[in-house]
Here is the input.
Amino acid sequence: MRTSPKVCLYFDELYEHCQISRTRHPLQDHSKMVSYAEMLAYAFAAHLLWTAYGAVWRLFLSPIAKFPGSKLAAVTFWYEFYYDAVKGGAYVYEIERMHKQYGT
Here is the structure.
């Protein structure tokens, strides 16, 4: 079975069009693609911004920011973790000590 010249011409034009559009496709242009190192840097920067926002929120903008106490304990849960995991569950006593120091 032979194909007509019109059909062959159509497929040749379609093939050429696909080749041209494929080279012009933005995802095929590797110079505009973000590398893994850049994505990692963006993720790290986003994490730092989120952490800084959380610290500012807890220290200055939160409704309980006006209460006296340790700023380290206000910013992070590592303070509680230290007294519970490293000091063997002594966070309860640390809270009692902070109540005496900063008032009730």
The longest helix spans residues 36-61.
